[in-house]
């Protein structure tokens, strides 16, 4: 009897173990479902927390993995390109505009169709819902930007989407709220403009009464530039001005002006504007300085294009900003460049270059920034190629005018006015490049080791000057500001060695 009880207990224990394995390994699913049955579930794509851009040069495909914090998830095949958060008319909830493309659908240029969707707060359901979807003219994701601005002057901010279409033409699509009534979710297209050249918003100074909320302001015009089809000179342009017509509540063409371009040998010009981005990149390599409308040189603004290192350097107001040259897209008159700040991944710049002559460029910079940067962003204008004398005179300023030797826990740290540094210790010599810049009133130093493109190998420090000492605190930059890493600081003292 006792042996039977022991055997029964062992059997129960064995069955229990098998049951646990059966449930834990998920074998029960195969028991209730055949092998041919496919179980489908809704996939919610949640981007990574860090902002990482990846560009495939061959296809021009662009994908941004960033925590957009969208109000409700999109469909499985809808891939986010850009997100705009905007305060609602009532101020009670935030509105969200999302630019997305549909995966696995191709257009004429191998790009899927691109739409804008509006996520608004509906008080009837006390939650967000998708109000509408509208197509836009732009189809190249790496060129698309979205922002809001009061174009009409009635404080009803318009939604502006810019980018390039399948023919590499610039486009601008503008949406405006249908009425000023609260909880009105209808937006109308008030402009769809495309052109082979730049498309700009012609801003003007508005009145004191407008700035203080007492009156309406004047509407802004939209200006587009393109090649003059009736001219044999490829640089002859047509300027088209679009003005807002309140009667039809749309922008309409109001004036056309022909602008003569420089007389350049057409064979050389066709080679530059052949659509081969490599040819144009090699042409713009080097230093360019801003020319004022009066024809004088503005020594506060310089741009340095380095196609080999895939960098664009902005120098202005004694601050140097280095941007990673992500991707180039040829345009009818030049090149569109998407760039990302090396230190602040959330700072993007879209640079539109147009050839005015062999040594002159018209440049427009669109900045997409989610962090306050203590540098000027007025980079638009006409730039001329710097001569050898100008380059030699400004080289030290462009690279960071620092030439000093310091003692530190790293042993010897030498800064050169060429933008290079050398750390010499008893065991090794380390070299690299450095840049000083400001964020939210803090002076920062970035040191990039030689032959290293990885962001994880870059060293970023916040600088404090105390009693003749320069103390470097290790930090990192995020979308909300500067974060101390709570690591031991490095103290620099001026060396007595010559």
Model description:
The protein has 498 residues and is mainly beta. The chain folds into 3 domains: 158 residues; 133 residues, Lipocalin (Beta Barrel); 91 residues, no CATH class. It is 12% helix and 47% strand. It has 6 helices and 31 strands. It has an 8-stranded antiparallel β-barrel. The longest helix is centred in the N-terminal third of the chain and has 23 residues. The N and C termini lie far apart (99 Å).
Q: Whole-Å distance between the termini?
A: 99 Å
Q: Over the alpha carbons, how many angstroms does the gyration radius reach?
A: 29 Å
- Largest sheet composition: 8 strands, antiparallel, barrel
User: Approximately what portion of the residues adopt beta-strand conformation?
Assistant: over 45%
What's the total count of β strands? 31
Q: Give the assembly state of these chains.
A: single chain
Inertia-based shape: globular
Number of domains: 3
- Helical fraction: 10-25%
| Mean pLDDT across all amino acids | 75
Q: Unreliable segments (pLDDT under 50, ≥5 consecutive)?
A: 25-66, 370-376, 391-401
Strand order of the largest sheet: 15-16-17-18-19-20-21-22
Note the topology.
Elements: H1 2-24, H2 27-32, E1 52-56, E2 61-65, E3 78-87, E4 94-102, E5 114-122, E6 127-135, E7 145-149, E8 158-164, E9 170-177, E10 187-195, E11 199-202, H3 208-211, E12 221-227, E13 237-245, E14 250-259, H4 266-272, H5 277-284, E15 286-291, E16 297-306, E17 311-316, E18 319-330, E19 334-341, E20 348-357, E21 360-368, E22 381-385, H6 388-398, E23 404-408, E24 411-415, E25 420-424, E26 429-439, E27 442-449, E28 459-466, E29 469-478, E30 481-484, E31 490-494
Antiparallel strand pairs: 1-2, 3-4, 4-5, 5-6, 7-8, 8-9, 9-10, 11-12, 12-13, 13-14, 15-16, 15-22, 16-17, 17-18, 18-19, 19-20, 20-21, 21-22, 23-24, 23-31, 24-25, 25-26, 26-27, 27-28, 28-29, 29-30, 29-31
């Amino acid at each position: 009897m006792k042996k039977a009880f022991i055997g029964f207990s062992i059997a129960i224990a064995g069955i229990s173990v098998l049951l646990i394995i059966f449930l834990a390994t998920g074998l029960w699913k195969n028991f209730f479902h055949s092998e041919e049955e496919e179980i489908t579930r809704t996939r919610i794509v949640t981007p990574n927390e860090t902002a990482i851009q990846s560009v495939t040069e061959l296809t021009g495909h662009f994908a941004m993995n960033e925590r957009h914090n969208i109000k409700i998830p999109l469909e499985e095949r809808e891939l986010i390109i850009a997100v705009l958060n905007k305060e609602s008319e009532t101020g009670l909830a935030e509105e969200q505009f999302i630019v997305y493309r549909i995966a696995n659908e191709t257009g004429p240029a191998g790009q899927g169709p691109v739409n804008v969707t509006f996520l608004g707060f509906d008080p009837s359901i006390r939650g967000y819902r998708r109000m509408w979807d509208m197509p836009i003219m732009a189809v190249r994701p790496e060129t698309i930007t979205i922002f809001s601005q009061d174009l009409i002057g009635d404080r009803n901010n318009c939604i502006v989407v810019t980018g390039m279409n399948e023919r590499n033409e610039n486009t601008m699509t503008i949406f405006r709220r249908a009425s000023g009534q609260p909880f009105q979710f209808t937006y109308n297209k008030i402009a769809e403009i495309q052109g082979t050249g730049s498309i700009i918003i012609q801003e003007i100074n508005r009145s004191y009464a407008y700035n203080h909320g007492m009156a309406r302001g004047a509407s802004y015009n939209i200006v587009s530039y393109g090649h003059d089809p009736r001219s044999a000179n490829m640089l002859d342009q047509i300027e088209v001005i679009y003005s807002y017509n309140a009667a039809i509540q749309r922008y309409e063409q109001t004036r056309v002006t022909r602008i003569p371009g420089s007389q350049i040998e057409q064979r050389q010009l066709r080679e530059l504007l052949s659509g081969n981005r490599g040819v144009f990149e090699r042409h713009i390599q080097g230093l360019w300085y801003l020319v004022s409308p009066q024809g004088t040189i503005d020594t506060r603004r310089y741009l340095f294009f380095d196609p080999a290192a895939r960098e664009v350097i902005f120098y202005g107001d004694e601050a140097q900003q280095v941007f990673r040259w992500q991707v180039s897209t040829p345009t009818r008159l030049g090149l569109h460049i998407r760039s990302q700040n090396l230190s602040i991944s959330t700072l993007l710049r879209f640079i539109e270059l147009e050839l005015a002559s062999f040594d002159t460029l018209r440049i427009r910079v669109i900045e997409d920034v989610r962090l306050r940067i203590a540098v000027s962003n007025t980079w638009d204008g006409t730039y001329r190629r710097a001569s050898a004398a100008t380059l030699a005179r400004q080289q030290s300023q462009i690279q960071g005018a620092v030439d000093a030797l310091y003692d530190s826990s790293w042993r010897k740290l030498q800064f050169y006015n060429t933008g290079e540094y050398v750390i010499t210790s008893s065991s090794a010599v380390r070299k690299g490049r450095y840049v000083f810049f400001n964020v939210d009133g803090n002076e920062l130093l970035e040191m990039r080791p030689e032959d290293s493109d990885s962001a994880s190998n870059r060293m970023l420090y916040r600088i404090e000057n105390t009693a003749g000492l320069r103390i470097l605190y290790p930090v990192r930059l995020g979308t909300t500001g500067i974060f101390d890493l709570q690591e031991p600081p490095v103290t620099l003292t001026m060396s007595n060695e010559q």
